[in-house]
Design goal:
The chain has two domains: about 1-50 and about 90-195, Up-down Bundle (ABC transporter transmembrane region fold); about 220-265. Helices cover about 80% and strands about 0% of the residues. It has nine helices and two strands. The protein has a two-stranded antiparallel sheet with strand order 1-2. The longest helix has about 45 residues, at about 95-140. GO terms for molecular function: ABC-type transporter activity; ATP binding.
Length: about 260
């Protein structure tokens, strides 16, 4: 919630959501149109097969004691395929099917590209706003905050966490949204064909939700532990850089190197 609120105004977020949905709908329509086209071709072939006599080529035998004639063997058989682009297949002809499919492909490319640009623009705005808010809050913080939180923990927030916001979160979030959109489109198509498939789908979704809750608790604990163990490393480096002249004058380099290795272990 806070991440999306930092990404921009409500209108911007709604526009991004519309682009995400329309982009997935265009991709689904492309798949549906190919399926519809293929089904119409199959029905057309079935109608042609039922209206004509099927010739069994294996039973066509040349007369004995005569010279084999290729023209006689294939007599009455049209060897030229029907490549007429204006031939009607169901309600439309082939050219109209191609025009509609090309238009859907162009729309799919346009909306998918637009949603990617819009999504990453929102993510960049959210990352910048969260960084600025965190920095301003730290500047306005009381001294007790700096006494309770070491410099390493603060540096960890501004380095690793902001790095995750800038690099990892947008990519993984977009992939997650795409997976969910594809999943819902597949479920909608399956439900339109076979309604009873919604029952096992609901059971599987509940099972996955339970597993997700268990995983999130473990993942959050591990990330919290990782942040706690990384903070002493940043604190040690910050203190070392601030007192580098004193360390060199007293010859305490080896002791600080051992402390740094111990914090890493």
């Amino acid at each position: 919630g806070a991440y999306w609120r930092a990404g921009g105004r409500t209108g911007t977020i709604l526009f991004m959501i519309v682009l995400l949905i329309v982009g997935q709908l265009s991709a689904t329509l492309c798949d549906y149109w190919v399926t519809f086209w293929t089904n119409e071709v199959t029905r057309q072939k079935e109608r042609e097969t039922n209206s004509t006599t099927t010739i069994d080529y294996d039973r066509v035998i040349a007369p004995k004691n005569t010279t084999f004639n290729l023209a006689t063997y294939f007599s009455g058989i049209d060897l030229v395929p029907d490549l007429d682009i204006h031939a009607y297949i169901g309600p439309l002809d082939t050219s109209q099917y191609l025009y509609v499919y090309s238009a859907l492909i162009v729309c799919c490319i346009f909306f998918i590209t637009a949603r990617a640009f819009m999504f990453f623009k929102v993510c960049m705005t959210a990352s910048r706003n969260l960084h600025n808010d965190m920095f301003h809050s730290m500047l306005r913080g009381v001294m007790r905050f700096f006494d309770a939180n070491s410099s390493g923990r603060i540096l960890n927030r501004f380095s690793k966490d902001i790095g995750a916001l800038d690099e990892l979160l947008p990519r993984f979030l977009l992939e997650c949204i795409q997976i969910y959109l594809v999943m819902f489109s597949i479920l909608a198509l399956n439900a339109a064909a076979l309604v009873w498939t919604l029952l096992p789908t609901t059971i599987i979704l509940l099972l996955f939700y339970t597993i997700l809750q268990i995983y999130l608790k473990s993942a959050q604990s591990i990330k919290r532990l990782e942040g706690t163990t990384r903070s002493p490393v940043f604190s040690h480096m910050s203190a070392t850089l601030n007192g580098i002249s004193t360390i060199r004058s007293s010859g305490a380099q080896q002791r600080l190197i051992k402390d740094f290795d111990r914090f890493q272990d």
